[in-house]
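Holo prediction — zinc ion.
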Amino acid sequence: MPDQFRLNWPVDNHTVNQYFGENPDFYAPFGLPGHEGLDLFAPANANVYAAADGQVYEADHPDNHPYGLQVRLMHTVGNQVYRTVYAHLAQVFVQPGQNVKAGDRIGLADSTGNAFGSHLHLTLKLDGAQTPGYPAGVIDPWPYFQTANPSNALIVYTTEPLNLRSGPATSAQVLTILARETALTVLDNVDTARSKIGQANQWLQVKTADNQAGYVAAQYVHLTGQAAPPTTLVVYAADVLNVRAQPSTNANILTMTTSGEALTVLGDIDNGRARIGQQGQWLNVKTSAGFSGYVAAWLVSTTQPSPTTPAQTLTVYATDILNLRAQSTTNAPVLASITAGQALTVIENDLAAARAKIGQQGQWLYVQTSDGQRGWVAAWYLSENPV
Ligand SMILES: [Zn+2]
């Protein structure tokens, strides 16, 4: 764990291209176990700032030096001496002996020396320290960034189990899977990061409580963490669905949903969530009308279907006073009384089959009234034409 010494971002863009110790194969020919610093994204001529208060002890381009044009700062903290090295610069604005403050502009980024493209390479040294295999004093700068400006730290929380990735893309390697409501410290500029929260196609660079750094999709984090996890899970019917008395296709149909209807999952949410979309699994749900029963889990999703093509509807009219019943039988409880001429919307998957039942003795149709009540009506008291 780092002591009091902290590093501020030495460039405006807070994107790490290469961490300390990465790419051992590439660095083996140079006698290094891996990358000996931190590569930060920096276009040519991007400003480079002092990462901490200190004094310049070198600002030049030694012949054939792999770091090219560089600035070296010394930072004395108590009885410890840290050194930061800013490599591959285009220009420097400081000279040896000069004192600088954290955030002072000291140069411009480029790719001088041994660099494939413009970026800022930052090396951190601590006099007397030794990281196995690396030159004397060289240490990993990254932990010193983590808690820089703790008062400004932005903490976000995952809204669902989320992948922590090695880069800002869904193609990047998954480093770990974060549990729901995991607290993450944002490493990007706080204001920029704040504007990304909840947004699709945006990424946040974060670190976990145990200092694992990576990227998460900004869409799935929020600011209010530690709150009670969601107590309700809502799913949407992918089609007109049967709501059954038991989790079986043989069980009685209690009611039907409309396509896209929101259903509240009953019972354990995590258990319910795990079943969504799974063939052969059932979900215990409550409909908007208050019916509780079971729907096929493979026919629901967590995303509300967009109303692209309006669903085809079939409207029928009562030819007489008739009963709206709980089941498709004259013995079933009466839910409501339908007046002659009242319009009813048929809720059935197969509207052609439903249409064929209209006016037929012994046939029943599942309908919804204009005030949202649903039930079964005798098809022989229905007409497709307004009465
Ligand atoms: Zn580098």
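READOUT: Residues 234-301 form a domain with the SH3 type barrels. fold (CATH 2.30.30.40).
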